[in-house]
Amino acid sequence: MSKHTFNIQHETAWCPGCGNFSILDCLKTALEELDKDPYEILMVAGIGQAAKTPQYIDSNYFCGLHGRALPAAAAAKIANDTLTVIINTGDGDSYGEGGNHFLHNIRRNVDITHFVHDNQVYGLTKGQSSPTTDEGQVMDVQVDGNIIEPLNPVLTAIAAGAGFVARAFSGNKVHLVSMMKQAIEYKGYALVDIFQPCVSFNKVNTFAYYNQRVYELDDRYNSGNKTAALVKAMEHGDKIPIGVIYKESKKTYHQKNSVLKNGGPLLDRKTKPAEIGKLIKEFI
Amino acid sequence: MYNLLIGGAAGQGIDTTAAILEMLLKKSGYNVFTSRDFMSRIRGGHNFSLIRFGTEIIKSHSNRLDGIIALNNETVEIHKTELNPKGFILCDAKIDSDDHRTIKIDMEGIAKKIGNPKVAGTVAIGAVLKLFSEKIDSVKDVLKSFVKADYLDVNIEAITEGFDVAENRFPHLKGKFSDHMILSGNNALTLGAIASGLKFYSAYPMSPSTSIMEYLASKGVEMDIVVEQAEDEIAAINMAIGASFAGARAMTGTSGGGFSLMVEGLGLSGMTEIPLVVVDAQRPGPVTGFPTRTEQSDLKFVISASQGEFPRMVIALRHHEDAFYQTIRAFNIAEKYQIPVIILTDQYLADASATIKPFELDDIDIINPAGKKDYDGEYLRYKLTKDGVSPRLIPGKSRNFVTADSDEHDECGWITESADMRIKMMDKRMIKLDKLKLELQEPEFIGPESFDILLLGWGSTYGPIKEAVEILNKGYGKKPNLKFSALVFGDVYPLPQKLLKEKAAKASRIVNVEQNATGQLAGLIREHTGIECTSNILKYDGRQISGEEIADRAMEVSFK
């Protein structure tokens, strides 16, 4: 049993039946099972219903701007690599407002973990299409049905070079805990796209919808084969795979950055006056 | 004092030629000031540097030339009207100039002869040194820091050849500046940031701020500084905030266009009370504007940028000493009050080199990022305090949770919608503006205590305004009895008012001198003090106003 618990007594802003509750439970379980010290956890989020997760877990947190969780999280990890940095935020935040940061933080490969609560809808603004909303779905703004093709985040992440890409479902808690633990332990940027029903604003992608379609990848699937992973990532219809779609060991930002690869955490390094004196002399 | 112009097309090495020459002249004892005027292109066009040097302290450029070093025809055509009757035009034999002041040297021929056509510009350096009766024995030491080892010998040969074909014309003046530094405004600013203990810099390349990132990157390993080129300016500011939250001293830098993208991040720093230093190296806008030129038109923008209300400080850099010492002060104020501090510079100051005393490190106090100590009892990151400043801890460095939320929050950092807490938190943050007023530095007063006309300026027009005051008080034009003084602001927000009110009360006329179209400082002064400027001298053509130009225009507006 873990030394720590991550429970906090705080009223949530989520609707009864929201997938966020089980994602939060699983996250606490994953952290406890990994025996993480709450004081060394930094939870980072953008804005949205999913992005309130850090408020409901006993840890340090940084709830920043909509779409901008990744840059802040990556920089916090660069500043202090003894922190375990975990991002919890939604599909709109991660793939819409933060789309550019999603692509480039995959490339940056800082050792951070990105959990996307993907309910395929904008919840906090009450029911507009998100980057992962299915084509044809009628929404508050998309009154004739969504005419924009959805983004496949898993496929995009693999194509962009992510070293750990997984998919999970909030309704399968044992599996989700396993995905979370693997993602947190992975050295580098790790994405887990988590299907999550929105009981208030998405009447299409319901608990039953996901429950009927998702199936767990088993041992016969080789998550180290990129071509096969791209094909698997495109499997998105009556059957949708959940599990580690792609995994590869890659050098992290810290391992490659010539300042960070030697020496301790960046924030503990002191600037020496003699060194500054040397720089000044170069201009004389 | 002498004033030289080196001009040519982009790609001809104007910048390097000027950099080598300014260092050689400085080492010889001169005080040197070099301003850079270049186009937004990689090849062709017309670029030039103005190198002004003498035995007194020089803080600005002048457009009255003693010599033109022309690497192309265009340079001669554009600038010969600015040349002193006794001046010279030094150019390659191939250049078409029938002006009687022309000195032609077969630079290309010499360069080819010694085996590298690219060193034609270096031949010109040798010739200039001879014209000004300099010696060339220390050339090798200087060249070492500008050219790669493989090209050292050929460049020394080029200088020697150029030196040998020219003649002494101007006497060497004995200056006392050989032990001074010569560096650009951006390099001085960057050194200030390094001296403040900077550990993380994130930015997206944008003129004229890019040289900050480049200089930092070149010293990253040596000084333990991570420089991250972000995917955009939004990422750049959010990264700087994330790093600062986690305990690494952080800065971001950009120009007005990038600052526009950073605006929401600025509010995040204000709301979450995370120290942040942002550099805005101004250039003419709106939008892309004049990418490589100068302006002071972001003042009102940065003062009010981002939605809502939160405390911030804006410091405008006036000169190279400011660039170093005020940057350190910006970090200290950001840390002390847990606010964003914006440093305003511009292309003129960013790229111009000046000769200044080596920076003093002994007297500098650095306020370090938040402590690591544990708190007795409950730790509240946003504890309500009298001075608005709450205990800042670094996450992971104590047995306390450190929080930040862009939503309105309570003392713990939890989201709240309480009307009462909203008022308390707003008041806690906004009271810092009152506390900041105690930190303010009054503008620099220049000129006689007893005066008629008061000139007002801010930032990089400091040098030109100072020179204008000297010119005007030396008996300029037909009314020499009129006396001029000036106030030049460094701190611009909150606006220091004491000296302004005192001097304004004594002035018969107040004239604001600004490098923008609307008189933004004058507007700010009117808003905060009710003091109205009588007339203004505004310039927004992308070229820095000179002391002579201010003097001319000050005379015009003083008798209207």
Tell me what you see in this structure:
- The complex is a heterodimer of chains A (284) and B (560).
- Chain A is an alpha/beta fold and 284 residues long.
- In chain A, 32% of the residues lie in helices and 16% in strands.
- Chain A contains ten helices and eight strands.
- An eight-stranded mixed beta sheet of chain A has the order 2-1-3-4-6-5-8-7, with helices on both faces.
- Chain A is globular.
- The model of chain A has no long low-confidence stretch (mean pLDDT 95).
- With 560 residues, chain B is an alpha/beta fold.
- At the A-B interface, strand 2, helix 2, helix 4 and helix 10 of A face strand 7, helix 7, helix 8, helix 9 and helix 10 of B.
Short précis:
The complex is a heterodimer of chains A (284) and B (560). Chain A has 284 residues and is an alpha/beta fold. Chain A contains 10 helices and 8 strands.
* Main sheet: strands, sense, barrel of chain B: 7 strands, mixed
Distance between the termini of chain A: 63 Å
The largest sheet of chain B has its strands arranged as: 9-8-10-11-13-12-19
What is the succession of H and E elements of chain A? Answer: HEEHEHHEHEHEHEHEHH
**Overall morphology of chain B:** globular
Strand content of chain B: 15-25%
The greatest interface between two protein chains, and residues involved on each side, is:
A-B, 55 and 66 residues
Provide a count of the helices of chain A: 10
Dominant shape of chain A: globular
